Amino acid sequence: MSARPESDGPPSSARARGLTHVHPADVSLQAALDAVADPVRRAILRELAGEPDWARACGTFDLPVSKATRSHHFTVLRQAGLLEQRDAGPRRVNRLRRPEFDEAFPGLLELVLREPPAAP
Amino acid sequence: MSARPESDGPPSSARARGLTHVHPADVSLQAALDAVADPVRRAILRELAGEPDWARACGTFDLPVSKATRSHHFTVLRQAGLLEQRDAGPRRVNRLRRPEFDEAFPGLLELVLREPPAAP
């Protein structure tokens, strides 16, 4: 049991209070497959994998979807144990949970990351 | 390029004429994920994995779905390169394409096969 970031002090905002995480070990295969079965979510994962942890804010991804849909995709990925998020001022930054997801679902993330990007 | 069973002679029936196969190497990650993202299809795969090749006919699986839905699930699995089918008289028998699917999508089928069966 590791402390969650929001337990270090008072939550900075209502937005941050809603930021719950699920460890990949607690995720069902169904939820993991549903998370990666969407091409936009796979594009997010591939882009995150090419960057240092906490380097990318949600708003910096160039995605062909509305703001609400983008937010939904990040929530699905977080709840499937695929990414960790923190609020850094106005930005919500991300970390790909690669080692712990690989331990729970060996090979799955690798298939996603080696997939060629879709044609634009 | 390997010959397909139906090219060995005249097709035995209209049913057999429709039996096209896709090699896992020609399947997209999207199609592979869509195929295994359904719990009934994962149950079929787990059951097939416990039996010799060509031992099980489609009709012998105890599935909580209609005959048409069952048939659809087998078609999706065949078109995702997960199984091979043959007509043997009135029975349509199956082979799990485990080695060739594993080569195309390492780890994915293993995740499906080690998943605990759903509670009845």
UniProtKB/TrEMBL annotation, chains A, B:
<feature type="domain" description="HTH arsR-type">
    <location>
        <begin position="31"/>
        <end position="110"/>
    </location>
</feature>
<dbReference type="InterPro" id="IPR036388">
    <property type="entry name" value="WH-like_DNA-bd_sf"/>
</dbReference>
<keyword id="KW-0238">DNA-binding</keyword>
<dbReference type="Pfam" id="PF12840">
    <property type="entry name" value="HTH_20"/>
</dbReference>
<protein>
    <submittedName>
        <fullName>DNA-binding transcriptional ArsR family regulator</fullName>
    </submittedName>
</protein>
<dbReference type="InterPro" id="IPR001845">
    <property type="entry name" value="HTH_ArsR_DNA-bd_dom"/>
</dbReference>
<dbReference type="InterPro" id="IPR036390">
    <property type="entry name" value="WH_DNA-bd_sf"/>
</dbReference>
<dbReference type="GO" id="GO:0003677">
    <property type="term" value="F:DNA binding"/>
</dbReference>
<dbReference type="InterPro" id="IPR011991">
    <property type="entry name" value="ArsR-like_HTH"/>
</dbReference>
<feature type="region of interest" description="Disordered">
    <location>
        <begin position="1"/>
        <end position="21"/>
    </location>
</feature>
